[in-house]
Write a structure and sequence with these properties.
The chain is mainly α. It has ten helices and two strands, in the order αααααααββααα.
Length: 258
Amino acid sequence: MSRIMTYMNSALTRLIVTLLVMFSVTACSTTPKIEGDVADTAYFESANLVDQEKFETEQVYDPWEGFNRSMYRFNYRFDRYVFLPVVDGYQYITPDIMQDGIHNFFNNIGDIRTFINSVLQLEFTKSYQSAGRFVTNTTVGLLGFIDAATYFGIPRHKEDFGQTLGYWGVGAGPYLVLPVLGPSSARDGVGTGVDMVVMSALYDELNMKSEEELALMLLNGIDTRANTSFRYYETGAPFEYELVRKLWLAKRKLDIEK
């Protein structure tokens, strides 16, 4: 069994490193252009827009606004000149069927995070459904590259430690824009850190080397960006920072309340 896991880890790592090298080189000679289908879950959906009067009257807690605005501009430049060209290169060299498989693979890993946080939130239906998805996709779905669980009608949930903290009454705290990751809050920033530590511990259990873990995290980030439709300064809003802040805070509130 250990030999099989070692072989699987080695093969997966070689695939990830090869893809990273290929699309990094390709991205240098391409212009930012996102092709393919619209993201399966857009970060900012039109259905989440609220009445304009609420935008003007509701107050948000943003004591670090100066830092957040600077980080927002940094994220825009990083996204435009680094992230999107890399995503474009990735999509250019990677067949659609492989992109779908990689996206399914990371969704399958994400079900572990959802399972843990569902248990912590005492959401037992979500817990066994997430566990069922992971077992089904890892076995029948060939390590998650095929989303067999959805075919069998097992719903997918998304839970993180920020939502768990919110479930137990921890307030969002100050609004916070994280480097590269974007909109967050003091609570969700901590939650993101905890989730990353948990996933890192999981990779350690699979005997993954640090460079293998880094390659996996990089590919996960690229896959996530490729499946997120939001583009900086393309909302058409004259005050995009305020718009994004309001939408994100409203979304997180709904995530916790659902």
